[in-house]
Design goal:
This protein is an alpha/beta fold. Helices cover 47% and strands 17% of the residues.
């Protein structure tokens, strides 16, 4: 793993793992060291507060919080750390993720949570990588290379489409 800061990935329930693992896969692809844990804002509030308060001293640079329905996890972490917190609202429940999105994005001034789309696990990872790349040239180069590969892939697909017409 690279020398950049680690990432703390937290999900509110083990049932969220299938959606959150997409985030972890991207972090692995970029050789970003991370830990993933199940911590609930409501069922384990003391553990959530402790993890948030100790995250910086434990070498984490960004925290990703994934939760559905009431989705208070990211807010609970943001209340207890000055590290960047990225909220990953998850689908499910009565509103199929809209409730989680609104709960995650509507934070009081001074306690922001950067929020990605419902089930946007990959973008949570890419945003994390962008933040860490601000102080990590190796990671910044990897992100630049990824973007170039993505551009080239799209241009190639356009050429393929043109040959079909």
């Amino acid at each position: 793993m690279s020398a950049h800061k680690r990432v703390l990935v937290v999900m509110g329930s083990i049932s969220d793992a299938d959606k959150v693992l997409k985030c972890c896969d991207i972090l692995k692809k970029f050789n970003v060291d991370f830990e993933a844990h199940v911590i609930s804002a409501h069922r384990t509030p003391n553990e959530a507060a402790k993890a948030a308060k100790e995250a910086k001293k434990n070498g984490f640079g960004v925290i990703i919080c994934a939760a559905g329905m009431a989705a208070h996890l990211a807010g609970a972490f943001a209340a207890n750390t000055t590290l960047p917190v990225i909220g990953l609202p998850l689908s499910g429940g009565i509103e199929d993720g809209l409730d989680a999105l609104l709960s995650t994005v509507q934070m009081p001034s001074g306690f922001p949570v950067a929020t990605v789309a419902v089930d946007g696990a990959k973008n949570a990872a890419y945003l994390t990588i962008s933040i860490l790349a601000l102080s990590d040239e190796e990671l910044a180069l990897s992100l630049d290379n990824f973007r170039d590969e993505t551009i080239n892939d799209i241009l190639s697909k356009d050429e393929q489409l043109q040959s079909m017409l």
